Amino acid sequence: MVRWNHAFRVVLLFCLSSKAWAEPKPAIASPDPFAGTRISQERDDNGLEMKFLWCPPGSFTMGSPKDEPLRGTDEDQVEVTLTRGFWLGKFEVTQSQWRQVMQTEPWKTERNVQISPDNPAVWLGWPDAMLYCRELTEQERQAGRLPVGWEYRLPTEAQWEYACRAGSKTRFSFGDDENELYDHAWYGEEEKKTGKYYAQQVGLKKPNPWGFHDIHGNVVEYTRDTYTAKLPGGVDPEVTDESSNRITARGGEWRRVLQYCRSACRQNLSPSGRGGRTLGLRVALVRVDTKAPVAAAPMTSVAIAAFENQGTAIEYVRLTRALGEMLASDLAAYASLRVVERQAADDLIRERSLATAGLTEK
After folding, report:
1. Spatial separation of the C-alpha atoms in residues 174 and 163, rounded to whole Å
2. At residue 283, does pLDDT exceed 80?
3. pTM (2 decimals)?
4. How crowded is residue 230: how many other Cβ atoms within 10 Å of its Cβ?
5. Cα 360 vs. chain centroid, distance in angstroms?
6. Predicted pLDDT of residue 359
7. For the sheet containing 58-62, what is the strand order?
């Protein structure tokens, strides 16, 4: 694992020609033809044929009641309203889907991994997951399949729990009976029975009421939010607190016991590590208010250099978000850009590969 007081090798030095941003476009009129019309409506009209299910706008109680068995101290309930519907991946991102977008296989030489196109992509860091979504957005826009005002992202913590609960108020989306968990999730008790010490092919277990598979257990799934001990409530909550040195992940995993499979269970993780055999992602397709780039104003130079950071992981969170925004800032310049893959080794994050497109390492 990367130690906080060591160097992070991430600095982005970039120069954009003048007037790189257009004026903000007005909000998308409703109804939006790209939005869904009913719960669990399915679409797969993307280059990966990745399946997404529609989650309509709505309100729900996030967190767990104080009498819920095995609850965490950071699960106190809050009321949440999501004013915009969103699409969420029916399955976790597979090795095949990762490889097609990123051209990398970070899991290939690691232990406790079953290499198969339909198994979850693992050994991914939070920055990798964020950049996967950005790269997928760029590719789909370039192909003309993704309209302005929509992009692929990690779900917020609130979006994730809303989709997981699927209208339920119980410990699991299917109820409170833990004896039924075996039918819905890969988790530690099952690992002991089967001797399968790795994430399993997606979609083999029963889905939740809205059709999402493996959401109670297979790999832990990154969210977009940084971590705070108090759940975010209110309208369309998203935690972007740069003073936090942890990020939030959700969902059970093949290695851990059933308490981690509950709908309300939260995990807070380092944003700078490379992840591991139990960490993956599920992608959301969301409507956003964005500034549209000017196609005639391409990026003139990009450099990635090393620097010494004494600000611990807080700076890493900030830089990861900044990189994500940059990837969306100029479609023409980034069309052929392959995302930098970062690995943790010898307590440092080193750059393992750099794209072409004018990138240099100093």
Report:
1. 13
2. yes
3. 0.76
4. 10
5. 28
6. 44
7. 58-62, 78-82, 234-235
